[in-house]
Amino acid sequence: MKKTALLFLFFTCTALHLNALDKVAVYGAIPGCELNPQYGVEVRTPGGKWQDVPVYAVPVDKVTDGFHRREKASFVYFDFAGRVEIRVRMQRPSKDVRIRPLSRNIRPEQKGRYACFTLDSPANLSFESDGDIFHNLHIFANPLADTLAGSPDGPEKADIVFGPGYHKIEGKVLDIPSGSRVYVDGGAWVDGTLRIRDAENVRVYGSGIVRPSGRGYGVEIKNSSNVVVEGLILTQCPVGGSRDVTIRNVKSITHYGWGDGLNVFASSNVLFDGVFCRNSDDCTTVYATRMGYVGGSSNIRMQNSVLWADVAHPIFIGLHGAASYKEDVLSRNLPFTGDPDEIVARHDIIENITYYNIDILDHAEKQVDYQGCMAIVCGDNNIVRNVLFDNIRVEDFRHGQLLCVRIIHNKKYCQAPGLSISGVSFRDIEYNGKNAQLSLIGGYDGTRAIEDIVFENLRINGTRISDDMPGKPKWYKTSDFAGIAVGNHVNGIIFR
Q1: Is residue 15's pLDDT more than 60?
Q2: What is the pLDDT of residues 294-303, one digit of tens each?
Q3: How far is CA 449 from CA 6, 14, 78, 109, 234, in A?
């Protein structure tokens, strides 16, 4: 009798709980899109009827001994309000089921091949069986409001609607005009790029999928202003030469080489809120002059987000600028001889950058020059200043550095070293793991230096690192306890 009662509680996940505020929306499988039978997923409101959720296959990048190999992971998505119960069926019983980010402290009930848990707020999660991160299940649990007919931003308010089904864009790119609202239904897969070019006042939203066949951008924002992209599952979403852009609850997954997630080039006033990035290259970058865009970048903020770099950096700032952009130099009639080794006397400014409330799930990069979960690598005569990393939780990654702050001349990508880095704060940073390599902070020379780096409440494996930490011998540098090598031309490092 006791065993029967326990089984009943498990398969219902909770005692019956009926609440009129609890709602869930599930979309049918999209014809022509590959499903993955590795997992089965059902959802319901507490005490309600289980609904099947299609499980889609998605390629991810696994690098072994320098070789890239495509692996097949999965993703599911649904919209809900209130509370939702999720039941996952695995192909075989798992000894260890974990749901990341670990900071959410989600501990599923497990019985045989089934695992069950409840959410009371939207989340972008990774469900992993026996530590397998390359055949995992990505779970995208979206807010419900914008998907409902009659809501302020419901589908009937849109100028362009991609309804349920598979949509292949003729010519691979659809240009979105100014003043448009584009709605992608949760049951829609758009094969192509939605390009916002030389436009203003554009909104692209919905719970659907925008993923071109092969490689390519899902959404591209070029030389535009007042743009909102929200809710979509896509590949890449770069922002270039633009201002006043909001990207919210977007999920970026790439598997191909140089498959960055959310790039920023020469733009200002860009907000990323609640995004999820799993990319085969950098998850999020802030650059200056690059890819045909000219100028610095300022007022860039990412918050409440999850970053997973299968290769390269979760966060990367500062490498590219005007010094390596010959066309820009010529167009502005600046002095340039054509010598690729010439240092052009011009600089871009990258400033006022904030990362707040971020979970970093992985970082795997063998090349020392390209490491760092939080990396500021300044090149091309750039000035980087006023950067804040605040409330960042870093899980044990596979290979790389926790942080990197350097001025370099990387001749593969830059025509000159950077000019300066100043005013960088690492506040409430927590790393738990054993795989981090030695972090690096270093300037270039006496005229290209780093100044004013502040660490406040840095915790590594539970130990708080500070200049007055108990038991620290006077002849040791605080940076030694933090696993940070501080090179030359660095002034004013403080550990509080």
Answers
A1: no
A2: 999 999 999 9
A3: 64, 58, 49, 53, 39
Per-residue pLDDT, 431: 97
Amino acid at 297: S
CA-CA distances (angstroms) from residue 438 to 95, 219, 371? Answer: 33, 37, 10
Distance between CA atoms of residues 200 and 227, nearest Å? 7
Q: Does residue 230 register a pLDDT over 70?
A: yes
Selection from 310, 330, 328 nearest residue 320 by Cα: 328
Query: What token pair was written down for 461?
Result: 């494996």
pLDDT at 475: 72
**Average of per-residue pLDDT across 231-260:** 96
Residues in the chain: 496
Distances (CA, A) of 8 to 3, 13, 46, 69, 467: 9, 8, 14, 43, 55
How do beta strands 84-90 and 39-44 pair?
A: antiparallel
Helix (H, G, I), strand (E, B) or coil at 349: strand
Answer whether residue 339 shows pLDDT above 80: no
Identity (one letter) of the amino acid at 203? R
CB-based contacts of 406, cutoff 8 Å, min separation 6: 376, 377, 378, 440, 441, 442, 443, 450
| Mean pLDDT along residues 222-249 | 98
- Is 0.85 topped by the overall pTM? yes
Q: So what's the pLDDT on residue 411?
A: 87
**Helix, strand or coil for residue 4?**
helix
Residue type at 326? K
202: its two tokens: 């554009």
Q: Which residues of 344-380 are buried (b: 16+ CB within 10 A; e: fewer)?
A: bebbbbbbbbbbbbbbbbbbbbeeeebbbbbbbbbbb
The most confident of the ranges 65-74, 269-278, 319-328, 338-347 is 269-278
**Alpha helix segments (H runs only) across 75-144:** none
Residue 147 structure tokens: 């998907």
Distance (Å, whole) CA 96 – CA 86: 18
Residues with Cβ < 8 Å from 145, sequence gap 6 or more?
81, 151, 153
